[in-house]
Amino acid sequence: MLPTLETLEAALGGLASRTILLRADFNVPLDDDGQITDDFRIRAALPTISWLTEREASVVACSHLGRPQGKVERRYSLAPVQAKLRELAPSVDLLENLRFDPGETANEARFTQTLVERCDGYVNDAFGASHRAHASIVGPPALLPSGAGRLLTTEVEVLSGLRHKPKRPFVAVLGGAKVSDKLGVIKALVEVADEVVIGGGMCFTFLAAQGHGVGKSLLQQDQLEACAELLDAGAPIRLPTDIAVLAPGDRVVQAGVDLRSDWQGLDIGPGTAAEFSDLILHAGTVLWNGPMGLFEDARFASGTVTVAQALADSGAFTVVGGGDSAAAVQQFGLSAAMDHVSTGGGASLELIQQGDLPGLQALRESVANQQASRQG
Does the annotation mark 346 as catalytic? Predict the structure, then answer.
């Protein structure tokens, strides 16, 4: 059981005049001019911030942005986030990018100590970073009374529900480039889902494992055996039956699943998109993680658009698993039609696969430590 904000409030005997370290996930996309192009993750933290400030707590927020490799890089500064926070939550102080210090990713006790200094409590609301055993995620709960923020709590409830009590039929729609990135979650989902639908670049390794020619499409030779084992075991996996390909001369061709050697598959075909949509429209629960094709190129966006629209039109409980899928529904103007859009791509997959995350474990251990301290 995760400690809640109310758990933290009780542990501190109230929050008035208390300083709370809030680990948020403000890893937002920026354009070439350093302007925020999507403030979804900032707004997602506002319910927790409001709850804390309404109780007169002083909030010191911290986050990472990008991967600056332990050194200060101006393009990764949180200054644009700070400017947005001044509009949305002016009383919140924001520390500079945690990853400017190598101690963050190395989980150094020295760095953790600098974070918690002069703080009375800690809140983790950074679901998108909670699969990382980094200093700001796993360090403070060992030193301060701690609680899970509203966003983190909701993410865990929704995604854990997919593992344990989905409304059926449960359809998982998985895309993206590499099988190796999602093989673990595929293995977990075939145990609980009624259908696991696979598109995107990774479908070609599955198709090759069935003996189909995939031309110049993305193929992970070292994953062929694992894909074949899943298919041979009778896993409920649904693969494309037609493909949109890039042919010589920059031509777009609609083809079956046996591609010529000089063809590159870059999207699911219209027949497959219709088949996948029908599964989604008749589902009780749908999880979507990963685009169906190279949707950044309008010529190969149709599969992803069709799947996204099917989720929007479905009466199912719909969950978008962060990352490129969240970006896609935002781009297509469909975010509001989804029941839950996760703030964490990698974290959502790991939670579904493993059932736990380092950040969640640290929060639970914080409760145990506090109880042991009181008994001692």
Answer: yes
Annotation says 345 is catalytic: no
Statement to judge: residues 49 and 131 lie in one domain? yes
Q: What is the mean pLDDT of residues 15-40?
A: 95
121 DSSP 8-state letter: E
Query: Is residue 340 scored above 70 in pLDDT?
Result: yes
359 is catalytic: no
Q: Name the catalytic one among 269, 323, 345, 359.
A: 323
**pLDDT greater than 90 at residue 323:** no
74: CB partners within 8 A, 6+ apart? none
- Active-site hit among 18, 23, 41, 84: 41
pLDDT of residue 6: 97
Nearest to 303 by CA among 175, 153, 187: 175
Quick check: is 322 catalytic? no
Q: Are residues 255 and 222 in the same domain?
A: yes
49-75 mean pLDDT: 97
Q: Where residue 42 sits, what CATH number does that domain have?
A: 3.40.50.1260
pLDDT at 204: 98
Q: Is the dihedral of CA 97, 103, 108, 114 positive or negative?
A: negative
Domain assignment of residue 207, given as a range: 168-315
- Classify residue 234 as exposed, middle or buried by CB count within 10 Å of its CB (0-12, 13-18, 19+): exposed
What's the confidence (pLDDT) of residue 327?
87
pTM of the model: 0.91
- Average pLDDT in the chain: 95
Catalytic residue among 178, 187, 260, 364: 178
Catalytic residue among 66, 161, 213, 346: 346
Q: How far is CA 327 from CA 20, 55, 323, in A?
A: 31, 34, 6
